[in-house]
Please model this.
Amino acid sequence: MSTVPTVTERPAAAGPLATAAPVRRPTAERRRRELRDRVILYVPLSLYVIFTAVPFYWMLMFALRPAGSTSLVPWPITFEHFHTVWVGAGFAIFFKNSVFVAVMSLILTTFVALLGGYAIARYRFRGKALFLIIMLCTQFIPGAMMLIPLFDIFRTVGLINSLGSLIVADTVFQLPLSIILMFGFIRNVPVELEEAAWMDGCSRLRGFRLIMLPLMRPAIVAVGSFAFINAWNNFLFALMFLNIQDRFTVPVGLGYMLGEFSVDFGALAAGGVVAALPVVLVFAYVQKFLVQGLSAGAVKG
Amino acid sequence: MKIVHSRKSRSAAIAAATALVLVPLAACGGGDGSGDADGVVEIQFWDTQATPARTESLNEIIDLFEAQNPDIRVSYVGLPSDSYEQKVDTAIATGSTPDVITASITDSANWVAQGALAPLDDRFEEGGWPDLISASMVETARSVVPDHQLYFAPDTGLANTMWLNLGILEAEGVAVPTTWDEFYDAAEQLTHPERNQFGYIFRGGAGMFPQVLDAMYGQSGVSSFFDDDGNSTLNDPRNVAALERYVGLFGNQTASADLTNEYTNMVAQFASGSGVLMNHNIGSYQDHVEALGAENVLGLQPFPSAGGPVTVSGATVLGQAMFAESEHPDEAWRFIEFFLAPEGNAIWAEQSGKIPSNLEVAEQDWIVEAQPLQAAIAALNDPATQVLREPFYLPEYNAIAKTQLEPMWQAVLQGDMTVQEFLDTAAAAYTEAEASYRERVS
Model:
């Protein structure tokens, strides 16, 4: 196990004085200090890991152990709960619907946010500041307040009972934050880079594609992953805009695991695993881009 | 890139772009599916308590119904039990309600108040159902609406039940209690905190009111929620004494964590054996059987009050309602009738573990073998039993219990409020609500 670097452990800097310094031997006080440093570091970390990991372990335990078992270890392992949710509760269909909605929302949100963010960052037009403030203000409106007007609009354009209604609603609700994120990132890319491309004969579009897009990969990944996760987890729009069983998404299916008078914990946990897995995988893949993307607009380069 | 300058061509470009987005999205599968095709009428049916087991049962019923009624197709939509209200309210507000919906008495009262449900009295009479369906259940369904009409056809009933983990009782040599005194003794004998086993499971969190009413009125023998003058009997001295004794269980014969218990935790505790006795709705019967095995589950009806009769509370009914805006009311009613008829009623009641409303079904063999259901039917049919009718017709009934009483109940359990103060506040709130109701109705 690696030790915690401390001041006393740090190797003496190279130089004449360092070589002359006597070798410091471990003392009781030094060992105590090391122990204290380790406790200060590892105890809070361990508590944090326990708080984070226990719900996941609980979920896996209930999902994998047989119904009625009180064992704290999921053994013998059973996949009956996964069969219940996948076949009995219709998750096989819900999963496909969720993937379609989340991927389409990701594509649309990222594409429009890219164009919108570029326009705000690179063009000067009347009302730009006001537009940004209005976009920020839209974040204060909860989706539930917009349900009835949205329902009426979607019914008018024939989108009720269509996954398209979810894609449109999810995209529209995520665009303000996505555009602001993109705007922050693009603003910090020196315009001179694009100008150099134009000088070399590129059109604005080609310059954008060849110069800007590669630089914006972290922002695209950050915005795209947010769009995917939000659309994946959205329960309310799916429940409200769909009246056909085969069109529902995973979050609605998850709601089926809680009855009014009873609850099937095994199926609930298995449903939770199915619902959480794509989000965990997406996060695992994009986490390094995510940090870059989020912090990209924070400091002027 | 060519820039569109003129206003006209810009509008055309916007319209084209919008169409470009919306047309493929609409192709993702729109349409409400309610259209008639080849003479077959499609009716929309919403289940407000969807679970995989319920969906399977309802699909079986729908398949049977469609086989017998080839001119009707039923489109099933399952809604999660914790969020269906918002969906239905939105549907009512936007005029997009289905034809048929599963309803409880609380739902019925809410939706009737919004003018959304169609009265079913005439159809119910014409079908000859009054002689075939439990009169008590029909009366309960009528009692929750001011005009006393029938807005949903009751197909099943529920009753509060005292659940026992028989395996633990037998292992510890504790006799099945038959009186309230024996119940308190059993709870004490079955409590072993060192083994994380408690005699009783308390409901300190959401939905605590039915358990409180059962314990209070069951022990006191008080038979009505209001006296003749419309004053709530909640703070009747007999109820106060009964509740004080009941609260004494908390922290002694129950886990302290029960302070925030709601039904999911309670059912899990009962399934794991960390709680041996539990008061909960009969609707959880199938889950207990699945977790513990039928031989280890016993469901008892309330014990008689000291020297008095059995007082049953929480006797409620569920059924099928038809929305007033249904475009196919005749077909919708035929589907509702299928839940009342012996074939559909038996499947529905047996698979959902509830009391059937059809009198013929209530005498079938499977009921005799289902001990908790039989006990509930026997208690409800016993002429000596007093049924406490809760005032579900009050629009504030659930809101008072949820927003006022639930937080105060936890204060009582923590010793920050006396039982007397709690019941005085509750009684005052319900008395005021009843007075407003009587004024409105008169």
